[in-house]
Write a structure and sequence with these properties.
This protein is mainly β and about 60 residues long. The chain is built from no helices and four strands. Strand 3 and strand 4 form a beta hairpin. It is elongated and about 40 Å long.
Length: about 60
């Protein structure tokens, strides 16, 4: 599992603790891949875990 470096857009999302992706499932085309990430976020006093889709580049940065 690789950690995804997320863009700083706090107004769009809550306090995300981590976002990870299984790098063996990624298929890069022109340096970008569609990734299904596991996200852990703090919502109020609770920790919430969910999956979401997004784009990452070959350095595992959010696109």
């Amino acid at each position: 599992m690789k950690e995804i470096k997320l863009n700083k857009v706090g107004y769009l999302r809550g306090e995300i603790v981590s976002a990870t992706v299984d790098e063996t499932k990624l298929e890069f085309k022109n340096g970008i891949a569609l990734a299904e990430a596991t996200v852990i976020e703090i919502v109020g006093n609770c920790e919430k875990k969910y999956r979401c889709l997004g784009l990452v580049n070959e350095n595992y940065c959010e696109v």
